[in-house]
Amino acid sequence: MQQYILMKEVLRIRDIMNPSPVIINKKASVLDATKEMKSERVGSIIIVEDGKPIGVLTESDILRKIVAEEKDPSKISVEEVMSKPPITISPDATIEEAVRLMGKHKIRRLPVVDKGKLVGMVTEKDIMQSSPLLLDIIEEWAEIVRERLSYRGAGKTMAGKCEECGMLSSRLVDVNGRLLCESCAELVR
If you placed Cys at 184, which of 19, 42, 141, 180 could pair as Cys (CB 3.0 to 4.6 Å)? Predict the structure, then answer.
């Protein structure tokens, strides 16, 4: 446990962030953004203006605001559907601060901003990959949660790790015996 405490004090967001996040202009179409996300193999894209992040477009935004509403992604600008304002974090922040911020706002990714300018992106996946001990603890916790769900029945939510995408969520639901985040549960149902 001392190793984890030491690691927590040493690791900063700058140590684990992606220093080259995928970005796009606010006037670009959702279709262009989606193509860029696909080619870069990412689940979100940051919308920037003069080097500053002004929004984030996620796969979830596209599903809920474009696909589900049967809109034409080639005719809608990312500015119209992006999540704004973006919740950001400093490169000097700790991993613990990032986890708290993500949990508080129920998000999985944070643009990293230094002196008002975008310098990177950090995701739950980055955090999980940097903290193997944390991953072991969460997997054990997910097993405990699964056992609790079997006693409490369906329809309730729990916190833990999604068994489909592996991301942390404070609202896991039981879908056919698997604990899934809301996004994955929507896709399965």
Answer: 180
Residue 48 identity (one-letter amino acid):
V
Q: Please state the pTM of the whole predicted model.
A: 0.65
Domain 13-123 class, CATH top level: alpha beta
**Domain spans, the chain:** 13-123, 131-188
Backbone angles phi, psi at 43, to 5 degrees: -100, 5
Bridge pairing between strands 44-49 and 23-25? parallel
